[in-house]
Amino acid sequence: MKEVKLFLGPQHPGMHGNYSVHMYVDGDIIKKAYPLPGMLHRGFEKLMERRLWMGNIALIPRICVVEPDINEMVYAMGIEKLGNIEVPERAHWIRMIILELARIAIHLMSFGGIGGPTGLYTASYWSIADRDLILDIFEKITGARVYHMYIVAGGVRKDLPEGIEEEIIGLLDYLEKRLPEYEELILKNPIIHARLKDNILLPEEVVWELGVTGIGMRSAVDKEYDIRKVKPYARYDQVEFDVPFGPYSDAYTRVSYKPIEIRQSIRIIRQSLEKMPKEGPVRVKISTGSALRWTVPAGMVYPVIESARGEYGYLMVSDGSEMPYRIAVRGASYPQGLLGVEKYLPGHRIDDASLWMDTMGVCAPEIDR
Amino acid sequence: MTVDKSVFSPIRAWKYLIEKPVTIPKKLVFDTPREASDNYRGFHINDWTTCVGCGICAEICPTNAINMIEIDSLEQSTGNKPERPAIDYGRCSFCALCVDICTSDSLSMSKEYIHLSKDADTFYFLPESDGIHQIDFDKGYDRDEVSELLDLERYEIDETPIEGRNESFIEIIRGYSKEMAIAEASRCVECGVCTATCPANMNIPEYIRSVWTENLEEGVDYLYKTNPLSNVCGRVCTHTCETACVIGNRGTPVAIRWLKRYIVDNTPKEDFERVVLSNVSEKINGKVGIIGGGPAGLSCAYYLRTMGYEVDIYEERALLGGAVRYGVPEYRLPEESVKEDIEMIRKMCVNFITNTKVGRDISFEEIRNTHDAIFSGSGNWIPKKLKVINVDHKDIRFATKFLEESRDYSRDMGRMPEFEDDIIVIGGGDVSFDVARSLARLQKIKNGKINIKFIARKPIEFLAADQEEVVEGKEEGLELRLNRSPVEILVDENNKVYGVKVAKCTSKLSENGKAKTTCSEETEEIYAKEVFMSVGSDPDFEYFSKEMMENLEMDKNKIIVEENGQVKGYPWLFAGGDIVRGPDIITAVADGHKAAIGIDEYLYNREKI
Ligand SMILES: Cc1cc2nc3c(=O)[nH]c(=O)nc-3n(C[C@H](O)[C@H](O)[C@H](O)COP(=O)(O)OP(=O)(O)OC[C@H]3O[C@@H](n4cnc5c(N)ncnc54)[C@H](O)[C@@H]3O)c2cc1C
Ligand code: SF4
Ligand code: SF4
To answer: What's the mean per-residue pLDDT of chain A?
Structure first.
């Protein structure tokens, strides 16, 4: 047997973020895999300890480039919990709209992203273009397309711009019409069936062993484990939505959950727009004084939310000063993206490595924080 | 979902041939760039006419992308530093926290988002009101009240209720509670613009921080670095710093004066004393005589002692403190506060020689002969008089004398001064309000009712007095007769004063920003049994010899001195306070400090010769 070493990433269209896996292959079967993080290590957690509570808002969205808002949300929730801060009602609903729009954006991106590893590039073009329509909405609400820095402790940074509700509804209508086309293109496609069905399995034991959450877990253990359901935050307990789950997790099942979840997000946004108070405050200040002197009472909390890849949380410690004492990020892709790659990527074929990364849900900076 | 096995499925794909592509051609991206949203966080815009160079944008910036650059064409002025922010777009994260916190409302972001260059150094810009490329893009993101990062409103300080305030000389301001003081201190952004305006350049942001961090001992240390009369100044300083405070650009300035007071009032006495007295030095061979124990003299004495000099203060009156002890009424400055400040200076082993008027009880020459240098801070104690008919009438009362008596009465050192039950006060400045409001209290205590007419040339908005004085004076029962200029003191056939004849005046803002007052021929008589005049005072230099008086360089009635307080032509003589420039305590304190340094330099260099 002759082993060949191959690099997947950090510069590779099939790689998710600046991350790399060193693969030892025999023929086209991966024998050993060593994940190599550190490519985009910016020391997020350490940097946070040297930034003001408010200043961190510019840093944390970068911990997951494609779904930045979850960082803003857990961070805000942590501060609110530490400081016993009551968020204004309207802000809760605005936050949900933002978070679900973000979920749609990343699901679209990775749903279409399956085009890269399978050669179905049309899917990628479509999904990136449609995601852009969501970014347009984000730009109008928050002033930026990707790093929104919008959900802040105490509420949101600004109220919604006038007339944005209609634009959001228009976008949702469009996406609903568009989804069947995606399904036609992707889920009914023989290539996809050939590559994804009964491939890259995620058995229940592995879920428990590694601590996989999100779509991976739900599709494997037949349980509706979604933080929005089991430990609702914002106003998720006041909207109706379903969470897909099942007992058999192959790459195809996991991909096929994405359009289902997108539809549920659309449902949540529609309800939010309807139920939210039409006016009222959207932010309370977390502390007296200028933002340079905002402090957060001492304590330790672990707020969690459901990201597109599963349970996302920050362990936050405050010593009562104007900067966090320590923040540790629980990136949802950590279990599968780091431990999983090493243990369970071997045995797959080289050309499935990218599919593995995509359908398991890996966002590199979450690991590299 | 199952695979679509229909033979027609490939045909369905053809429809996309005639649909608009989802991608945009590269040419369009550059030829007709997409317009950003109204809220877009693009490159910065900074309006230099409103920017005050406080540097807070740089302070909040989480990526350290902002540097403050000194601009030669700009001038330092009250509340304005000649600096403007430059932004390194290699670091900027476009978070717009700088915009949300900008103290002057000058900074915003634009819809501009393209800058292309191979040279990394070109990503550094000094934005102006037309952006970074001077191509006038529309405004994008701007702060609103939700995204605001400053705390604009002042936290209320506890005061005695208006009701009953005019029945005693009890201090009006009661002070901040700990919670309120910390909240107020948290509003400061530490820009230091105030420090530049304070005559003594007090370490304001530093001592405010010590309130915020609850480290009051450190606060005391900072106070005494530049001001040994912090208790006094924490109560009655003219607080020009607050006029400069950048928080005042969009809100109410930080209550700098009250925070200083909070430090002094709330540091345990032993700690306070330990910190202050730790500054005393061993006595060295050098002795300085000081004429006048007012703020200038006291400050000079304090700093000379920190350097080790022996100090004698000669004071005409029974108590030290000058106008602070014999002028400012107790409802603004309780006796206890002045006493504490002065006690601290006494404990530094400064010799207080009271009830000794230089020129009467001891000659200037004698002091000169027994000391290595002299500092004079004798203040202004001879009342000025208006040029009106009958102004020399013996019954006209003047501010200085009356306030001295009134203050002695309120500190139980004298009888209640004599006064009538129907009084006119002529003035317009702070001192005249001290007179009128003290009289109001005395009338209330004695007669149970107040009858005081306050006459001034200008309308409220142009009065020299602090607006607070006017408001509170009115609340306490003063009857304001403004826009009236006295022309004659009315005296009856029995040679008794019975009122004032005034001309009616109007004031308006002139081009130089000052009020211009013109008075008409039309007059009016205002009647009262007694007239008090408070229109300023002049120095008394009788203690200088004739020869010196001839040689001293003067500007009107002020002595001209060097930057360090040294009197021209007399290297051993220094002067400061009201006799040099005035007009307030903190200036006198600063003068005393500067002179102490000047004296030290003079004596040190003299030793060497
Ligand atoms: C009624 C009043 C209210 C004021 N209120 C305020 C205020 O709220 N805030 C503020 O900042 N400023 C205020 N001021 C101004 C402030 O008090 C003066 O600017 C300051 O006291 C000047 O200090 P100084 O040391 O130069 O002189 P002074 O305070 O006038 O002290 C001079 C001292 O020298 C003594 N002296 C004079 N001649 C002789 C001599 N020949 N021999 C020995 N001793 C002599 C005097 O008795 C006096 O004690 C007020 C002034 C007055 C009159
Ligand atoms: S915060 Fe505003 S006023 Fe201060 S320097 Fe920056 S731009 Fe100028
Ligand atoms: S008191 Fe005002 S001017 Fe002074 S440092 Fe604080 S914010 Fe700046």
So the answer is: 93
Spacing, Cα A340 to ligand 2 middle (Å): 50
What share of chain A in percent tops pLDDT 90?
A: 78
* CATH architecture of the domain with range A4-368: Orthogonal Bundle (1.10)
Q: Whose CA is nearest to atom 1 of ligand 2?
A: B102
How far is the C-alpha of B376 from the C-alpha of B314, rounded, in Å?
10
For chains A and B, CB pairs below 8 A equal: 122
Asked which of B508, B535, B562 is the last residue of a domain, the reply is: B535
Establish if B327 belongs to a structural domain. yes
Largest CA distance in chain A: 70
Identify the band that residue A1 occupies on the pLDDT scale cut at 50, 70 and 90.
Answer: low
Range of the domain at B135: 24-141
Write out pLDDT tens, residues A86-95. 999 999 999 9
Q: Which pLDDT tens digit goes with each residue over B250-298? A: 999 999 999 999 999 999 999 999 999 998 888 888 999 999 999 999 9
The alpha carbon of A295 and the centre of ligand 2 are apart by a number of angstroms equal to: 23
Sign, CA torsion A179/A180/A184/A187? positive
A157, A288, A292 member nearest B147 (Cβ): A157
Residue B331, class by beta-carbon neighbours within 10 Å (0-12 exposed, 13-18 middle, 19+ buried)?
buried
Contacts of B4 in chain A (CB under 8 A): 184, 188-189
Is A159–B146 a contact, with Cβ atoms under 8 angstroms apart? Answer: yes
For residue B33, name the pLDDT band (cuts at 50, 70, 90): confident
Dihedral sign (CA B183, B189, B191, B193)? negative
Q: Please state the rounded mean pLDDT for residues A80-99.
A: 98
Spatial CA neighbour of B298 closest among B234, B236, B343: B343
B39/A140 touch (CB, cutoff 8 Å), yes or no: yes
**What are the residues facing B426 on neighbouring strands?**
B455, B533
The CA radius of gyration of chain B, in Å to the nearest whole number, is: 32
More confident of the two residues A178 and A366: A178
- Three-state helix/strand/coil letters over A7-58: EECCCCCCCCCCCEEEEEEECCEEEEEEEECCCCCCCHHHHHHCCCCCHHHH
pLDDT of residue B609: 56
B378 C-beta neighbours (distance < 10 Å), count:
29
| Entry pTM | 0.91
ipTM at complex level:
0.94
When pLDDT is averaged across residues B313-319 and rounded to a whole number, the result is 97
- Please report the pLDDT score of residue B526 as a whole number: 96
B187:A143 CB<8 A: no
Do the beta carbons of residue B198 and residue B314 sit within 8 Å?
A: no
Question: Are residues B471 and B435 in contact, defined by beta-carbon separation less than 8 angstroms?
Answer: no
Pocket probe for ligand 3: among B76, B212, B254, the residue whose CB has the most ligand atoms within 8 Å is B254
pLDDT one-digit tens code per residue, A186-198: 999 989 999 999 9
Tokens matching residue A292: 């340079």
Nearest CA to ligand 2 atom 8: B51
pLDDT of residue B261: 97
Question: With bands split at pLDDT 50, 70 and 90, how would you rate the model's confidence at B362?
Answer: very high
Q: Which residues of A touch B144 (CB under 8 A)?
A: 158
The gap between the terminal CA atoms of chain A, to the nearest Å, is: 38
Residues B448 and B459 in one domain: yes
CA of B101, closest atom in ligand 2:
1
Residues B520, B389 share a domain: yes
Q: Which residues contact B369 (CB under 8 A, 6 or more apart)?
A: none
Which of B535, B566, B594 is the last residue before a domain boundary? B535
Which atom of ligand 3 lies at the shortest distance from residue B189's CA?
A: 7
